[in-house]
Design goal:
This protein is mostly beta strands. It is built from one helix and 13 strands.
Length: 140
C-alpha cells in the first residue's frame, strides 16, 4: 500500500462517522484561502475530497477524485450557502489516478454574511456514494 493510500485510509478512519453541519466551522470571518474536508474512501480504491475556495465575498466549490480502480465516475459539486444549494456542477469521466481529476464550478458571489460549505457526491459505476463536505466557513 502506498503512503498516499495509507494516509487516505487513516483520514477516512478518523472522519468516517462525522458529518459536518453547516455553521460548525470557524466563527471568524474567512476572506481568502482554500478549506478542504477529510479525504473519503469509496469502493476500496476511489478517494475524494471537497474543498471551498474563498476570495472576499466569493466562493467556489471543488471536488478532487483519485480513481485507482478504473471505475466510471461522475462527480457533482455545489455550494451550501445558508441552507441554499447553489452552483451545481457535474463532471463526467473522472478517471485519473495520480494526480487525480478535478471538478469545480465558477465563482459564486455570495456577498457578506452567513456560512458557506462545498458539498459533493459521486456516482461510481452507476451507484451514488455518500456526500462529502468541506469545512463550513463564515463569510464576513
Amino acid at each position: 500500500m502506498t503512503i498516499r493510500r495509507t494516509l487516505a485510509a487513516a483520514a477516512v478512519a478518523t472522519a468516517a462517522l462525522s458529518t459536518l453541519a453547516l455553521g460548525a466551522g470557524s466563527a471568524d470571518a474567512a476572506t481568502s484561502g482554500t478549506y478542504c474536508g477529510a479525504t473519503q474512501q469509496f469502493d476500496g480504491d476511489v478517494y475524494a475530497q471537497a474543498c471551498l475556495t474563498i476570495s472576499g465575498y466569493s466562493v467556489f466549490p471543488s471536488l478532487h477524485v483519485t480513481n485507482h480502480g478504473g471505475h466510471t465516475i461522475t462527480g457533482v459539486v455545489w455550494v451550501n450557502h445558508n441552507g441554499n444549494y447553489e452552483d451545481y456542477t457535474t463532471c463526467y469521466g473522472m478517471t485519473a489516478s495520480d494526480p487525480g481529476s478535478w471538478c469545480s464550478s465558477g465563482w459564486d458571489g455570495i456577498g457578506a454574511g452567513g456560512y458557506a460549505q462545498a458539498q459533493a457526491q459521486l456516482v461510481i459505476d452507476g451507484s451514488w456514494s455518500g456526500k462529502i463536505y468541506s469545512p463550513s466557513e463564515y463569510i464576513g
